Amino acid sequence: MRAAYELARKKIASFVGASDPNEIVFVRGATEAINLLAYSWGGLLQSGDRILLSQVEHHSNIVPWQMLCDRKKAILRVIPISDKGELDMEAYQNLLSSKTKLVSVVHTSNALGTINPVKEITQSAKSV
Questions:
Q1: Neighbour-count burial for 33-67, b at 16+ CB within 10 Å, e otherwise
Q2: If both were cysteines, with which of 19, 42, 91, 106 could 38 make a disulfide (CB 3.0 to 4.6 Å apart)?
Q3: Banded model confidence at residue 111, pLDDT cuts 50, 70, 90
């Protein structure tokens, strides 16, 4: 059984461009993954660090970050959306700073059907 998991981990690592198959972690769903990230990686946050979320996030991608910010005295900022339900990319750029440690946005909104420009969002986040 373990051999099958390790083979799957290697295949997925290759597919997504991970440098090591041990970077691949299997979870039951997105909610569990977000909570795992918030409670593990989140321990590295410092007071005043920032987390950015979009205004159209699912509840499961808001609460763990709110709780983490409360615990660590970090700052949660929300990227607003336009009247068309699209992310305000100018506002996003203005919210980014060297204090931004995490940007978490849904690729496609389950409520609005909006497809967010994740490539642009990722590139901008990496630039700071």
A1: ebbebbeeebeebeeebbbbbbebbeeebbebbee
A2: 42
A3: confident
Provide the residue type at 115 as one letter.
Answer: I
Cα(83)–Cα(87) distance, integer angstroms: 10
- How does pLDDT run across 50-92, given as a tens digit for each residue? 999 999 999 999 999 999 999 999 999 999 999 999 999 999 9
Quick one: which of 58, 101, 61, 96 has its CA closest to 79? 96
CA distance 4 to 12: 12
DSSP secondary-structure letter at 107?
A: S
Q: Is 53 helix (H, G, I), strand (E, B) or coil?
A: strand
17: DSSP letter: T
Burial of 74 (0-12, 13-18, 19+ CB in 10 A): buried
Of 98, 97, 77, nearest to 88 by C-alpha is 77
